[in-house]
Amino acid sequence: MELEALQGVESDVRAQGAQLVVITPELERYTRALHRKLNLTFDILTDLHLKTAERFGLVFELPDYLRDLYRSFGSTLDRFNDEPGYRLPMPARYVIDTSGTIRLAQVNADYTIRPEPSDTVKMLATLEKSNQ
Amino acid sequence: MPSLQQRLDEYKKNFESGGPPFHVSPEAVATMHRATAELKASGIESRALKAGDRAPEFNLFNQDHAQVSSTELLRQGPLVISFFRGHW
């Protein structure tokens, strides 16, 4: 759902002279299928073993009781992510300016809450103005 | 068109009430709520990078196995990054 919503603002992001990428621990064979299925025009980057997410401070380990629950649903994170440790990134959205400084950070430990893509685009617009 | 969050909330309502296709039990929902509450309480959000911090550089493969570097992207303009936990 989030990827489709991001696709919906992709042209607005581009119109601001910016680019959009998604970073996920999922392996390339899964991102490739997802990318084709949703007809995305932005890249999905595979963050193998969460090395990049770690540097953003987003990684957490699922507690045992949650792992057991997900397994009972038939979910196999280790297969999708080659991640036997059952770690995940918190959902997060960042806007980074051309100097490499983070200008907007939207992070929530509750994965059922996602930042609105249109709000991210609004922030991008103010960023462009302040640089002119 | 409903916002992303409105659609997520709708999905969550169905999921947590045991609707199809998952037919999840109230116990399972309670377990998931517990995990989220514990993660929030751990203070992890405040340890994540914030506005004003320097973004780490990265060099990752895209869906077509092409290498994508953040330095290269930032040369062309600002960058929006969305971290996605996957569709599993």
Report on this model:
The complex is a heterodimer of chains A (132) and B (88). Chain A is an alpha+beta fold and 132 residues long. Chain A has six helices and six strands; from the N terminus they run αβαβαβααβββα. Chain A has helices at residues 2-15, 28-38, 51-55, 64-72, 77-81, 117-130, and strands at 19-24, 43-46, 59-61, 87-89, 92-96, 102-107. In chain A, the strands form three sheets. Chain A has a two-stranded parallel sheet with strand order 1-2. The model of chain A has no long low-confidence stretch (mean pLDDT 90). Chain B has a domain at 4-45. Chain B contains four helices and three strands; from the N terminus they run αααββαβ. Chain B has a two-stranded antiparallel ribbon. In chain B, a hairpin with a 5-residue loop joins strand 1 and strand 2. Strand 1 (19-24) of chain A pairs parallel with strand 3 of chain B.
Helix percentage of chain B: 40-55%
Based on secondary structure, the structural category of chain B is alpha+beta
Distance between the termini of chain A: 34 Å
Highest-level CATH class of chain A: Alpha Beta
Order of strands, widest sheet of chain A: 1-2
| Tally of helical runs of chain A | 6
List the helices and strands and how they pair.
The complex is a heterodimer of chains A (132) and B (88).
Chain A: H1 2-15, E1 19-24, H2 28-38, E2 43-46, H3 51-55, E3 59-61, H4 64-72, H5 77-81, E4 87-89, E5 92-96, E6 102-107, H6 117-130
Parallel strand pairs in A: 1-2
Antiparallel strand pairs in A: 3-4, 5-6
Helix pairs in contact in A: 1-6
Chain B: H1 4-16, H2 26-41, H3 44-47, E1 59-61, E2 67-69, H4 70-76, E3 79-83
Name some characteristics of this structure:
heterodimer; A: 132 residues; alpha+beta; Glutaredoxin; two-stranded parallel sheet; 6 helices; 6 strands; globular; B: 88 residues; 4 helices; 3 strands
